[in-house]
Q: What sequence folds into this?
């Protein structure tokens, strides 16, 4: 998924909704985006952590709504490895990335 597509998807989510990723028994909070090269192409990598407060919809939107980011694919950094973002689901007042 590209940043522009992700921004369109999250634009209808409540502004205070936190975003998370769950892998097996671990829940990851989203921290900060950075541009890096993944699979030999420029990409947006969102760093994660298991112990910090996660970014909310409005924070993600402000951080990602940069012209230089819009055509980049979105990845999460999970255990030091990139993992592509394919969408999200809403449950229990939180957004869970797929």
A:
């Amino acid at each position: 998924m590209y940043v522009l597509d992700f921004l369109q998807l999250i634009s209808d989510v409540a502004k205070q909704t936190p975003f998370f990723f769950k892998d097996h028994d671990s829940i990851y909070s989203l921290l900060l985006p950075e541009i890096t090269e993944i699979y030999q192409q420029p990409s947006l990598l969102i760093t994660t952590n298991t112990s910090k407060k996660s970014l909310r919809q409005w924070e993600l939107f402000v951080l990602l709504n940069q012209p230089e980011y819009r055509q980049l694919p979105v990845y999460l950094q999970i255990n030091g490895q990139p993992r592509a973002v394919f969408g999200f689901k809403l449950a229990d007042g939180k957004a869970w990335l797929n």
